[in-house]
Amino acid sequence: MSGDKEKSTVTSAPPSPSPSSVPPSVEFTKGINGLQKFILRESRGSSAEVYLYGGHVTSWKNDHGEELLFLSSKAIFKPPKAIRGGIPICFPQFAGHGTLDQHGFARNRFWAVDEDPPPFPTNTLNKAFVDLILKPSEEDMKIWPHSFEYRLRVALGTGGDLMLTSRIRNTNSDGKPFTFTFAYHTYFSVSDIRLTKYILALLQRLQLLIMKKRGHLFCAKMVFLMLWCGILGIRKQRLWLILVMMSTSICCV
Ligand SMILES: O=P(O)(O)OC[C@H]1O[C@@H](O)[C@H](O)[C@@H](O)[C@@H]1O
After folding, report:
1. What are phi and psi of 212, to 5 degrees?
2. Cβ–Cβ under 8 Å, residues 38 and 111
3. Which residue ranges does the record annotate as region Disordered (predicted)?
């Protein structure tokens, strides 16, 4: 679950470390309303917090201690209500695209620690990370009759970059395929929401225009994001972090 040792929950620091040599660490503790959470810390001081409830990232701070995610002051942290802010996981349905409640049920379920995650092709050394897993309950199967294993890795890299990797496996005993929709519904923190609203409206139009003309969604998204960050004066480092965030992946096995 942490950088140096894949299976240990807490990485202990060596004796008298210098600030730059403190290893990445993962702490399992209680958060708001006693809900359990992990705190990931990286050697240069950035951190992230992940609740088991919802597999929900609620905080991501850079090495200056600045919060990069928005968490509503009205977020109540009381199941079955979803946590408002941070990075809600919308699964197996995004928005109202289906018969389930808005954004599906993954954000309203208690996830478990994944004790035996399949290996990753990439090097996880020097990263603080935690592996979570969600499997449907009998009640879930009544509203969405598909068996699955949803594995989520939340990792914090040495530069403070936050990476979420979702791996969703169809475990239907009859091998029947299923479809789903999904989103990391990230709430970024911004300094001026009014200005952001105007700029977003403008850029959404621009994005639509580019998509219509070129039909190239990826390019449009990148142009959109870079303009947005540039106009809002987001520092270069933060823009980079956001771009890394955007490159988080989802794969089905
Ligand atoms: O209010 P919820 O269910 O947490 O959803 C968060 C937001 O999700 C977005 O997808 C909707 O467009 C918003 O209207 C909504 O507020």
Report:
1. -65, -45
2. no
3. 1-26
- Three-state DSSP class for residue 161: coil
Does residue 1 contact residue 26 with C-beta atoms inside 8 Å?
A: yes
In DSSP notation, 180-200 reads ---EE---B--S-HHHHHHHH
What is the Å distance from ligand 1's center to 88 Cα? 10
Note the pLDDT of residue 137. Answer: 98
Q: Measured in angstroms, how far is the CA atom of residue 1 from the centroid of ligand 1?
A: 31
Residue 103 CB–ligand 1 contact under 6 Å: yes
Q: Is the CB of 82 under 6 A from ligand 1?
A: yes
pLDDT tens readout for residues 65-91 = 999 999 999 999 999 999 999 999 999
> In 3D, which of 121, 136, 130, 127 has the Cα closest to residue 168?
136
ipTM of the complex: 0.94
61 lines ligand 1 (CB under 6 A): no
State the pairing for strand pair 249-252/162-170. Answer: parallel
**How far, in Å, is the centroid of ligand 1 from the Cα of 94?**
10
* Distance between CA atoms of residues 177 and 172, nearest Å: 8
Q: Is the CB of 95 under 6 A from ligand 1?
A: yes
